[in-house]
Amino acid sequence: MNxxxxxxxxxxxxxxxxxxxxxxxxxxxxxxxxxxxxxxTKERTTVGLDFGQFTLDNGDRIRLFGTPGQSRxxxxxxxxxxxxxxxxxxxxNSRPDPLADLRVYLEGFADDLxxxxxAIGIGRLAAHPSPSLDDYIEELARxxxxxxxxxxxxxxxxxxxxxxxxxxxxxxxxxxxx
Length: 178
Ligand SMILES: Nc1nc2c(ncn2[C@@H]2O[C@H](COP(=O)(O)OP(=O)(O)OP(=O)(O)O)[C@@H](O)[C@H]2O)c(=O)[nH]1
Ligand SMILES: [Mg+2]
What we know:
Layout: E1 3-10, H1 16-23, E2 29-34, E3 44-55, E4 61-66, H2 75-81, E5 86-92, H3 98-108, H4 110-115, E6 118-123, H5 133-142, E7 149-151, H6 157-177
Parallel strand pairs: 1-4, 1-5, 5-6, 6-7
Antiparallel strand pairs: 2-3, 3-4
Helix pairs in contact: 1-6
Magnesium ion binds next to α1 and β3.
């Protein structure tokens, strides 16, 4: 049995807590409090971490960690990414400048992204079609990254599992090269 630690990160309200809650087999550990951040209207926001886990059909266990979205907690990013085997970066396409949001995480996690697989999940794309998936791919290319970019609804279990499978497929491809 293998255990994989996967980190979920991305901007405030992109859905890190929702995504982990959508797939966790155990009640997710959530550290949300009432949101006083004026930059976002959401009711609650994460101030510590999210944690959830689930088991794949082959018995491998996935441990999911989520970061707080607010940048004042970015000191936690390094701690939470330690020993992670892969990373999911979530974006919210309804925000004023989602590509700028993504850049914060591409730059903040540059060291990690150089050594671990990642997948990008774009939320609320149907209602907010711009920027497009191609625009995200171009933004990644400007950071010398080639990563899968998926249209996801973090509230849907299947979408979150697809993101995780995309990471695992990259890990497996990497392992078979060795
Ligand atoms: N209507 C709608 N709501 C969505 C969609 N995607 C996500 N949401 C909602 O957006 C909210 C996301 O909130 P969280 O999961 O707390 O986001 P987070 O990334 O953990 O936020 P922070 O911890 O504050 O950084 C939830 O209320 C979701 O139900 C969508 O496509 N449509
Ligand atoms: Mg959260």
